Amino acid sequence: MAASSPPPPPPFLALTLALAVLASASATGARIPASTTPISRSLYHSSDALLRDIKALVGRHPDKLSMDTITASNKGYSTDLFVVTFNHVKESTDNGSKIHVLLSFGQHGRELITSEVALHLLYILTEKHKISGVDLSSFEKMLENLVIKVVPMENLNGRKRVEEGELCDRRNGRGVDLNRNWSVDWGKKEKDYDPYEENPGTAPFSEPEAQIMRELSKSFKPHMWVNVHSGMEALFMPYDHKNTTPNGASAHLMRSVLENLNHRHFQDSCLVGSGGGAVGYLAHGTTTDYMYDIVKVPMPFTFEIYGDETASTSDCFKMFNPVDKTTFDRVINKWCMAFLILFEEGLRNLQDAQVVSQSAVDNWVPMGGDIVERSVARKSSNEKSKLEGLDLGMQELRTYFRLFIISTVLLMFMFCTRISKNRNRDTDEQSA
Asked: In this predicted structure, what is the pLDDT of residue 194?
């Protein structure tokens, strides 16, 4: 029997009500007002500055980091997606035996704090940036058993819209919510459906960002997936589209990891359970549900890392992001540490469950979709290469052409065989 998640505790009710007010305003046709608190430029990187820092970090640590830049397009809309791979002591450990971790930050443009956590986590993994009171050397051996792919800004175009002043916008560059564009229960609309907040797109995977993430998940085959958001503090597992968690051993494994993390690091203060049961509304077409149902990721999670329930509905930036340095630093340190503990808990539980990797990660290649370019930054050799990909239509056309050729050859063979038999029969009859 699937366990239902408990209703949200009082601290989260205020935020849920605030989000409902935002939804009501946009559903009635009113434009959501600009945030009364601007972006704190002294705290937050611009998207360009964040990418520059990440590229510089990759350049300083080619032995541990590599970076892929993938471009995808669909019906005149295109985007770039950057994937950073951390692979500690890659030369001495077989990649095929490692646990694969895939982390995505910044899926919603207005949630800037998530990408800052991504950047600082990469610093900690490579340059051992300190977390107050923590001996990072204790995690060194554990990291040797992991390959971690980090997508620091999944929604780059949406992020740029926010930087230009649309501080309340969570959608991508053409107005689609990327966390509603996946195929599990896609397109279903609740009574409180808000087209501004939850536009699912014209079809599942209509958006290039979702296409890239889908192909990355299929080729990398992660054992752990975390979709990082802000709006509250919570540790969620599937499902988002219904008020239940999955059945069986996998659900027990996921819940065990989250409850241990919550107890060890958050003193049981975080909300744990299904996204659909705990947030206060159901979400259809989400990434995490797809990762669990379709990609079969053993541990797919959604983390909510910050929320200000006291912020007014007209103050989106403050609602989703810390605005003072003390809170900013606290959130960064707390959640970077949370990821280290998650890796430790996940590794231990997956090893106990005897889950093993199915492929090495250095050879992953995007498949299908509308991916048109892949460039790889390998700073160790200071080379950049580009691989031209085929879009799905061209692949299908070539497949049909091959089938046509094969069918034609078989028909010709059968035809020639029949003619030969007829000739032999006529020869036999004449001889008789």
From this structure: 86
In this structure, of 165-169, 371-375, 412-416, 423-427, the range with the lowest mean pLDDT score is 371-375
> Which residue in the block uniquely carries the two structure tokens 């990072």?
136
DSSP 329-376: HHHHHHHHHHHHHHHHHHHHHHHHTT---SS-STT----STTEEEEEE
Helix-helix angle 325-352:112-127, to 10 degrees: 60
Domain range summary for the chain, segments of one domain joined by +: 12-388, 395-432
Chain centroid to Cα 5, Å, comes to 23
Residue whose token pair is 């890239």? 212
**Residue 138: its pLDDT value, please?**
82
> What are the Cα distances from residue 171, in Å, to 124, 166, 209, 371?
30, 10, 11, 21
Alpha-carbon distance of 178 to 201, in angstroms, equals: 8
CA 19 – CA 8 distance, rounded (Å): 14
Identify which of 197, 281, 280, 268 has the alpha carbon closest to the alpha carbon of residue 235.
Answer: 268
Where does 251-354 show beta strands of DSSP type E?
271-274, 299-306
Torsion of CA 221, 227, 233, 234, to 10 degrees: -40
Confidence of residue 46 (pLDDT cuts 50, 70, 90): very high
Q: Which of 146, 125, 116, 144 is nearest to 50 (CA)?
A: 116
Domain over 12-388 is classified CATH 3.40.630.10: yes
- 50-72 confidence digits (pLDDT tens): 999 999 999 999 999 999 999 99
